[in-house]
Amino acid sequence: KIKQIDLFTNNWVKTNNINLLDFTLHYSMEDALADANPWSFCNYNDNLIGFPRDCGPSNFVSGQWNSISRGGQPDIAYYVWNDNPTITDPARPYPSVDEFGNKQAGFCVKSGGGDQNSGVYRISSGDVNTPETESLCLQQCAAFPGHTGCEAIFNQSNRGCYVHTQEVARGNGRDNHSCWINAETTST
């Protein structure tokens, strides 16, 4: 069970609290109510650091956190939406990853072989090279609106999970990268 005061003010942890799967963050209340334009990235698990630990719309955003004992943002407020779901409302289901094809070696490239750097959002940091981390990466990519592919990077400085939202056709065979293509968005 999550202790919300501690989670928001001191211990923003990943356990039972995964961005895009257990919650979403948005720029505005309108986006939140429409479940539109979710932020792609959140960082976790820094002792005595609270919400929203470096979360951002498309990547890591430094210094966006608070803490009772370690500083962070000086002016914070938390609001509770009065129309919260009741206890009988079902939780948002984790998305299926069946739409993704088999893992391909290399980073995701366009049909002509060029690297796709537009419409790419970092979802998480850290090596993504075990069955567990790959599964979580795929679930987070599947939860991101408009996803066309999912890319894992490991053993290098930009390691993490990335979601693609523009054309990707295949992996290019490079080391330290894996690519999954959303079969529902590829042209034949």
Give your account of this protein's structure.
The protein is an alpha+beta fold. It folds into two domains: 1-93, no CATH class; 104-181. Helices cover 13% and strands 16% of the residues. It is built from three helices and nine strands; from the N terminus they run ααβββββαββββ. The protein has helices at 4-9, 29-34, 131-143; strands at residues 66-67, 71-72, 104-105, 108-109, 120-125, 149-153, 160-164, 170-171, 177-181. A five-stranded antiparallel sheet has the order 3-9-6-7-5, covered by helices on one side. A two-stranded antiparallel ribbon has the order 1-2. A hairpin with a 3-residue loop joins strand 1 (66-67) and strand 2. The longest helix has 13 residues, at 131-143. It starts with a helix and ends in a 7-residue tail after the last strand. The model has no long low-confidence stretch (mean pLDDT 87).
Explain the layout of strands and helices.
Layout: H1 4-9, H2 29-34, E1 66-67, E2 71-72, E3 104-105, E4 108-109, E5 120-125, H3 131-143, E6 149-153, E7 160-164, E8 170-171, E9 177-181
Strand order of the largest sheet: 3-9-6-7-5
Radius of gyration: 17 Å
Instruction: Spell the H/E element sequence.
Output: HHEEEEEHEEEE
Distance, first to last CA: 46 Å
Query: Class by helix and strand content?
Result: alpha+beta
Helix percent reads 10-25%
Q: How many β-strand runs?
A: 9
Largest sheet: 5 strands, antiparallel
Mean pLDDT: 87
| Relative strand content | 15-25%
Principal-axes geometry comes out as globular
**Uncertain residue ranges:** none
Number of helices: 3
Integer tally of domains: 2
